[in-house]
Amino acid sequence: MPVRRQFPTGCFEAADVLNGRVEPNYQKVLTRLLAAHAIAERLTAEGYGRVYGFIDDPALTKIIEKNMAEERKHARLVYAALEELGVNESRADRSMLMVLKAPSFVAPRYFAEQAANELDLAMASISLDMTGLIMIGVNYKESSYAPHARAAEVILAEEEEHELFAANELRDAAERFGVDRVNAALREWLPRAVNFFGPPGSGFTFDCIRFGLKTRDNGELAELYLSLLERRVAQAGLQMPQLTPDYPHVLA
Ligand SMILES: [Fe+2]
Ligand SMILES: [Fe+2]
Q: What protein residues have CB closer than 5 angstroms to ion ligand 1?
């Protein structure tokens, strides 16, 4: 059964939530969602920071610097929205310790902790910037929580450029590293990238949709991503890996 959305876009400010004008579960679900968004932005910023050390092409270095600064800003915006709810950054991060071990966080963690070269940068960008653009553009921009909807608006403009960068990186990578190497990297990264959307049909997402904190289920977003990426991959003369249908996805 489709979930009925209870609250329209931007209908609550922090004060409404704190003054108990919304049911208590709203605050709980919202805090968890924001904490997950914040840490994903922070890990993406860290990933850009990590690859910065490996790249010596000055034109590319400049873009990495820009993206890193913007991802840091995105993280700050979302942590600020949490702060308004009385949750500081370290408490938000602590609440994510278990979530960080889930398949949905393998991609941002890999970028932040293990990315090692320009090919990883290209793959991380299609795995995080392209997915981020979809999550933020489809879900968070229409959040019933006004501070998140406002933050999403700012983030979205920059993520559109990051996504463009991702598309260029993919094409360049095929030319620079050869189709075989990039196809192998795609096989390695695609399961991580799709799993970043999280499990489909979860109770948490059901609550998010009901409260107007998301508009679509994770599974729908994952499908949208795969169809967009498929086009990009074909344009770059690469091969789209086949994945198993269920979350967490692995190579078929
Ligand atoms: Fe971002
Ligand atoms: Fe980004």
A: 41, 71, 74
CA of 71 to the centre of ligand 2 (A): 6
Least confident of 64-73, 104-113, 165-174: 165-174
Alpha carbon of 118 to ligand 1 centroid (Å): 19
Spatial distance between the Cα atoms of 197 and 80, rounded to a whole number of angstroms: 23
**What distance in Å separates the CA atoms of residue 241 and residue 239, rounded to the nearest whole number?**
6
Domains in the chain, ordered, with CATH?
A: 14-235 (1.20.1260.10)
pLDDT digits (tens, 9 = 90+) for 191-208: 999 999 999 999 999 999
CA distances to 169, 195, 248 from 102, rounded to whole Å, are 28, 9, 9
Asked whether the beta carbons of 220 and 208 are under 8 A apart, the reply is no
Contacts of 6 (CB under 8 A, 6+ apart): 144, 210, 211, 212
Alpha-carbon distances, residue 1 vs 4, 6, 61, 172, 210 (angstroms): 9, 15, 48, 44, 12
Burial 205-238 (b: 16+ CB within 10 A, else e): bebbbbbbbbbbbbbebbeebbebbeebbeebeb
Nearest ligand to the CA of 124 is 2
For 239, the token pair is: 């091969």
